[in-house]
Amino acid sequence: MIGNQPFIKPEKQLLVSGLVLLIFSFFYQLGIYPLFLEEPRRGLIALEMIFQDNYWVPTQTGDLYFRKPPVYNWVLIAAYNLFGSYSEFATRFFSVFSHLILCGLTYSFVKKHLSQMAAILVSISLLISADILFYFSTLGEIDLFYALVTSSSLFAIYSFGEKKQYWRLFITVYLLTAIGFLTKGLTSLPFTAITLLVYFIHKKNFKKLLSLQHFTGVGLFALISGGYFYIYSQYHDVSGWWTTLFSESADKATGGIVEFLNHLVSFPVDTLKNILPAGLLLPLLFGKGAISKLRANRFVWYCVLVFAFNFLIYWFSAEAKSRYIYPLFPFVIIPLIYLAIQSSKIAWEKFIRITSFILLSILTIALPILFFREELNNVENLNLTVILMLVLLGILWFLIFTKKARPYLIVFGLMAVMKFGFSSIVPVTREVDTGAARDKALGIEIARLTEGEELHRIGNLRMSLTIVFYLERARKEAVYQTDSYESGFYFCYEKDLPKGNSYKLHKQFKYWEDTIYLIELD
């Protein structure tokens, strides 16, 4: 379907130019739009660690925060130091960079155990996985960094296991597991436990799990994880961690029968959608002799087993999200590409070719519509961007008509063009025309209004974390909770407005259904 013949010159040029365009597009305008969704929470916790000069105790608006351990906050702090500012670009940099590093790491492993062609096709397929390409690579979130840490651990099990380097295996794996645990919590433990069981049972070497090397690795994990919580205990009681981490894991396993059945159907479909275009190759798994081909290569079969047994945990958990299995993306893409390279089925080659024709046609027809969209008037150089994209599409049309590039590489080129268009247009609209943009402006306005003054929130008040991030970034201090009024500025609900005291109302705004008041007392 993809063919195992060497890449010809036009294909090499397409791969190199597409890769350059993608890397540029991943970072282009990455920092011009405000933090939103979970981004401000991640940035906010890192900021408060810096402002409070305490890198061991995560807080959110001054309150103890237990839902995620601190490693990713340390990563953000490193980014802020690297770029010399608490900018949106710095907040998102290591998320995108982690994805690029994982693609490079995957290339290295696949090249070593299969071939350079397979390595190139697998790594570019991972690079352009649709869910990451157009969504999570635009966010400063934990998941891509966590995927890098966890996938590296799963690769290390096979790499060191095949060399019988068991000390290196268990030390490396449990070191990475500890980092993963201190990044995202208990989810790292099932990945490690399941994959070690899969590998050593398949190798008929279960007794190695009872070896000194394994127990040493477990001890290293306990030392690193326990060491963090010991240091934390010097500041606060650690019981809040155990309650929250275990409840978070239990929450992922909840859901009624309707939710469970819906998830049972939708989760595999979403996974296929999220790994497109590699997901187009799924029918190859049902071809005659497919399983035999997969079993014939130890590395490929290891990938199949790792994906299958780890995927089951999330497939049968109604609360699981697609991003939870990002660490497994390389392990499903590798078998699919392996089969595609070996396949000689003309029908599926035609299917990919027709798919590339359809996608090219849709984008070629749709792009000129952007010239006439009034909501894009604020996008500078929109016309130049659209014209450039049309020129690039023209080159792809030439390559596919002259058959100078195999259809799967045409899809790769198409995804690169789409990512460039996305990065050229969408960040500009997010910058000025979203709720996050309004929250950012409000946070900056309040920071100017309260500059040099005390600012607190009354009671258990909750507000947009985008507002809080920009407010705290400007004031360089946390907005702490208090239960009593003195002089200064306060956020409060209507029910908490001071009785019998004169105050000045500066702002009122909505957060979900609640109205929040910013008042000043003399």
Give the SSE layout:
Layout: H1 9-27, H2 39-51, E1 59-60, E2 63-64, H3 71-83, H4 88-113, H5 116-127, H6 130-134, H7 143-162, H8 166-184, H9 188-202, H10 212-233, H11 239-251, H12 257-274, H13 290-296, H14 298-315, H15 329-342, H16 346-366, H17 382-401, H18 407-432, H19 435-449, E3 455-458, H20 465-475, E4 481-482, E5 488-493, E6 504-511, E7 514-521
Parallel strand pairs: 3-4, 3-5
Antiparallel strand pairs: 1-2, 5-7, 6-7
Gap between N and C termini, in Å?
A: 75 Å
Main sheet: strands, sense, barrel: 5 strands, mixed
The ordered H/E elements are: HHEEHHHHHHHHHHHHHHHHHEHEEEE
How many extended strands? Answer: 7
> What is the C-alpha radius of gyration, as a whole number of Å?
26 Å
The number of helices is 20
Q: What is the subunit organization of this protein?
A: single chain
What average pLDDT do the residues reach?
A: 92
User: Could you give the order of strands across the largest sheet?
Assistant: 4-3-5-7-6
Low-pLDDT stretches: none
By secondary-structure content and strand pairing, the structural class works out as: alpha/beta
Strand content: 5-15%
Helix content: 55-70%
Q: What coarse outline follows from CA principal-axis ratios? A: globular
Report on this model:
Helices cover 63% and strands 6% of the residues. A five-stranded mixed β-sheet has the order 4-3-5-7-6, with no helix packed on it. The chain is globular. The relative contact order is 0.12. The mean pLDDT is 92.
